[in-house]
């Protein structure tokens, strides 16, 4: 798959005619005769090629006057993998839009975060996606509205507010325009018993992904490193607290063969879109595993590992600053010791939350809260205290930004300039917090051990040179190499 695939008409037609679900989210098929748009895997009889035209986004289809197909529901397909594998302006803008920045701060706020003018951002998004930031945010609001209409018993006025619409009228007009059904008609189509959350603020959703997905290292890593009070593994689900723009939440994520079951409890429903986006990002659900595994299989050493358990994802985070703090706490100590250090910070400095199920107690403390603590209270060597206090100080005052809009190369360089930050810490943060799919940790002990057992070079410089063939997916190669060990991070908890 590649950038701008929607311009390759012949390839898109083949994907539609074969109903290939791997291409869902990469492009959308607009049918000129019916004025509807579909995902490539739509179960309906494919239209004649002469009647197809292709767009890179659902918003682009809507801007051109097409309505969403009622059978394949293209708005619910996985997101394009491009936005998580690229670091250019358009990709960074798309990550911010998914995180709700346009709804909260407007297009000027989006442009400020990106460091470009509003006009430049609008021009580049329009050129590549056929829609500007307002249209892209509008498409996202419509998708959120549909989700709430179909999965809750909330009044329509509450849904309009929660989805980010400025008025009931705009909500009604947008839903009718995008889905060719009124909000009440959309709800009426849901089979009885399938909709209607009875607990206020609790939503049950299905998060789609591209197959294959191997949940072992993904959920194994999150469960094995879980910070008590903030995260836990319970009844086959990974649960954690979420710090969100308007309030807080608790999420439970359960791996299933064809989706991730997601149960969200939110203190403010306006956080729904952001919560879903961050959970998808943490589980790397928008990745293209076929493209990744195909590349890694070309290496005869990695090929058997990929064949044994294809579809490994990179376990990421819902909070980049939290992960950076935890990476420092984990320097040169065991997983258990890192969890203990983090749990102490949570108990003393985290905001308490009420968990109806009883296992979770706090939000992980913010950089501002951690910047105010007494360094002498930290049970760690003095040099690491300096590393910790410098990091949280720069995160708190905005000197260091680890958000979804950050430039990977520039941010890695900024991290390496901090006292106590070596390549391992910077690269782990780049891989799991920033989301760089090519981040690599050749100094990691687990990687060096795996390399030695597999006959790969074990010195960092030689291994880095050897790993050039794995680019741009070295972060995924790391997952396959780590999985050769019997560490708990590689297995679903029993």
Mean pLDDT: 93
The helix tally amounts to 23
Write down the overall geometry.
globular
Low-confidence stretches: none
What is Rg? 23 Å
Residue fraction in strands: 5-15%
Keyword list:
494 residues; alpha+beta; five-stranded antiparallel β-sheet; four-stranded mixed β-sheet; 9 strands; 46% helix; 9% strand
Descriptive notes:
With 494 residues, the chain is an alpha+beta fold. Helices cover 46% and strands 9% of the residues. The chain contains 23 helices and 9 strands. It has helices at residues 9-17, 58-63, 82-85, 89-98, 101-114, 118-129, 133-151, 156-162, 168-179, 183-188, 215-224, 272-282, 289-297, 303-308, 320-329, 335-349, 367-371, 382-397, 408-416, 423-434, 445-454, 460-466, 474-482, and strands at 28-31, 36-38, 52-55, 67-68, 202-207, 231-234, 237-243, 248-255, 260-266. The strands form 2 sheets. The chain has a 5-stranded antiparallel β-sheet with strand order 5-9-8-7-6. It has a 4-stranded mixed β-sheet with strand order 3-1-2-4. β8 and β9 (260-266) form a beta hairpin. The protein is globular and about 65 Å long. The two termini are 37 Å apart. The mean pLDDT is 93.
Q: In brief, what are we looking at here?
A:
With 494 residues, this protein is α+β, with helices and mostly antiparallel strands.
